[in-house]
Structure formats: structure tokens, C-alpha cells
Amino acid sequence: MFELNENNRYFFFPEPVNLNRSIDGLSRLVCTHPALSLVSGDIFVFFSRDCKRVKLLRWDEDGFILYYKRLARGTFDLPRYSTEKGVYELDWYTFYFIMRGITAHELRFRKRFKITPQRIASI
Fold first, then answer.
1. Per-residue pLDDT averaged across 94-115, rounded?
2. What are the helix and strand counts (H, E) for the chain?
3. Which of 22, 37, 41, 103 is surrounded by the fewest CB atoms within 10 Å?
4. Any residues with CB less than 8 A from the CB of 52 and at least 6 apart, and which?
5. Is the separation of the CB atoms in 49 and 73 below 8 Å?
6. Beta bridge partners of 37
7. Is the separation of the CB atoms in 94 and 79 below 8 Å?
8. Is residue 99 part of a domain?
9. For 19, left (φ over 0), alpha (ψ -120 to 50), or beta?
10. Does any domain span residue 103?
């Protein structure tokens, strides 16, 4: 319901957004990207120009949920991106690191075994 976890998809809008916008204003931004669906249950991530505030927009079965976080001190460390693409899908770990104040640029992940639906079918 109100849970954010690794089962969700996260889409990062790299252009700074005026966070005075409400659900309707942020929804209009999502609608400018035809590949994205507002009612998919995906989470859309918007940051302020100063990187001290973030809003997350999500459809939850029968209505929108708007999450808002304002840092008392410091800023969010945004991922590197090219301004040409427009919207980026973030994996759960990158999203989690951004929200927790961990700099993801310096981290390296070691390879791990992961069960995928294809591997389960072959067993």
C-alpha cells in the first residue's frame, strides 16, 4: 500500500522541478513522456533545484499518493545523467542510497547469484 521497496519501479526526472506543484502538476510532467503510465503503480521521483527536497508520485489502486521529503541539512546526491534522455529508471539500490544520503558514485557491487524466472523454469 504505502510501501516503497525493491518490487517497485522508480523513474527519475533529472530536470529540477518547482515542488510547489501538487499531484496534478506532477502528473502533467509524467504525461509528457508517452512511454510512462501514471496508473502503472510506478514511482516518479522529482527533485528541487537545490536538491534539498524530493517528491515521489505514485498511483495506488484507487488514487494518487504523494510522498514529500525535505532535508534539514545537506542535499541529495543525484545520479549522473545525460540531459538528452529525459527520464531515467533507477534501480532500488540507487534510489535507496539517494534517500539515505549514501554517495552511489563510489560504490561497487560484487557479482551475486540471483534467481530469475528463466532460471526457475530451467530447474
1. 77
2. 3, 5
3. 103
4. 70, 71, 74, 75, 76
5. no
6. none
7. yes
8. yes
9. alpha
10. yes
Assess whether pLDDT exceeds 70 at residue 84: no
Based on the structure, what is the number of domains in the chain?
A: 1
Q: Which amino acid is at 99?
A: M
User: Does a structural domain hold residue 33?
Assistant: yes
In this prediction the pTM is: 0.81
pLDDT at 61 (0 to 100): 87
Residue located via cell numbers 514511482: 43
Residue 106 is part of which domain span?
Answer: 10-122
Write the pLDDT tens digit of every residue in 3-47: 898 999 999 998 889 999 999 999 999 999 888 999 999 999 999
Question: Is 5 inside a domain boundary?
Answer: no
Contact of 92 with 5, CB cutoff 8 Å = yes
What is the reported pLDDT for 104?
Answer: 66
